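Handout, page 2. Input:
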Amino acid sequence: MSEPHGQATVGTTTLVGTEPVAVEVQADVAPGLPGFSIVGLGDAAVLEARERVRSAVRAAGFRFPNARIVVNLAPGPLRKHGTGFDLPIALGVLAATSQISSSVCSQRRAVGELSLDGSVRSVPGMLAHALGARRDRVGLLGPAAAAHLAAGLPGLDYAPVTSLASLGCVKGPSLLPPSMPPDLETPVGPDLADVTGVEMARRALEIAAAGGLNLLLIGPPGSGKTMLARRLGPILPPLDPDERLETALVHSVAGIDESAALAGIRPFRAPHHSASLAGLVGGGTPPRPGEVSLAHNGVLFLDEFPEFAPSALQALRQPMEDGLVVLVRAEGRVRFPARFALIAAANPCPCGYSGDPVRACTCAESMIARYHNRIGGPLMDRIDMSVAVERTDPSLIVEGSGGESSLVVRERVMAARARASSEHRPLAAVLSGNVLLAACAMDAATRHTLSDVSRARALSGRSVTRLMRVARTIADLEDARSVRASHIMEALAFRREDVR
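Output:
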């Protein structure tokens, strides 16, 4: 008895950065010497699909053809990667041998990894694959474990499958009921009320939250820099619907659980100072998002700031300015979003006690200069505020006298952002040029004050812009229509001359 033979085509997608690109899986089963070949620039994970597909097809009760099988992944010049090709390859082989109806894959793409027992598993980037299917107005056949992601995309025809054996249950369009993420009534994370005795740093944290600004905290060990930084997240407003999808998309591509982002919780990323350049800004084969992209729409906390590799720190300059990482490789350019608020913490010197009134510093002036130079002037110029954090009086800790809670501060932050929204302008962190000048709406006396202090402090053009952004945010917190001289002077207090 001759083996059944034929051809079938199943649609799928591969990811280039966070962008899903359509791919055709063309399966040809023909008489000849038995073999299973996959062509079309697939990586090692794609080529290993041969063994997974063979075992999964048999375990699901289908017959794997004893024939010459060639699977082509088109377009040929595009590099394909990942285990998500397992399911479309298996469907192509089964459809080509008439073991399943071609209607299962009609007007649908397929993405999923196969276990040896035939079950279908999720792969990194399922949200991106689902968004690509909705964009191109086709359905998606995928693992049941990813159905909750599809439920958050109205209008997507998503057919969940648990295993190859359940393919007979897949019928026509399957529109899942919409699933709305829960609203966040209270802040998630440690409470700002735990922080006492550092009022200026608390004020800087509130301004940074209201304007999406960058902040550097400088102080001796144990002064509470890390404690402060970890309380920025709870005073930020929840992600809006568009931000949730943007953030969840990056996390999905990176293989990180996206449920927190879909619930509106802003990401807080705190990489160790031994992080590599690729780990911080992205890279690898295929290129994957780094910490700056995983912090998109959230907070990137860099503790022990000068201890990071200088090359890694300088690579932050472009994403801090543009809100975007562009990785250029021989195969092309990959873009990852990276709009984050940077919170950095540093000691004033290598030993940590320069300027401390209690403990004497043991560092030479040259050591301190080298320590600060690891950060570099161009990067410091991109930090909006730098604040000294003094050691807290022990009596305040013992007595447990706390400050305002995160909930109270977050209400002011949200009110300040609402003022900006009511005037149809973005956060202060992205304002520049004439748009920033118009948003500040300064009178002649205030402009004169700004010019005088900028000239006296020898501020660069970028530093003046950032000074205005801080002042605009302070005005928003006070519900002021225009920036006044008092706002300029308070903003100036958050720029330390010794780290300018």
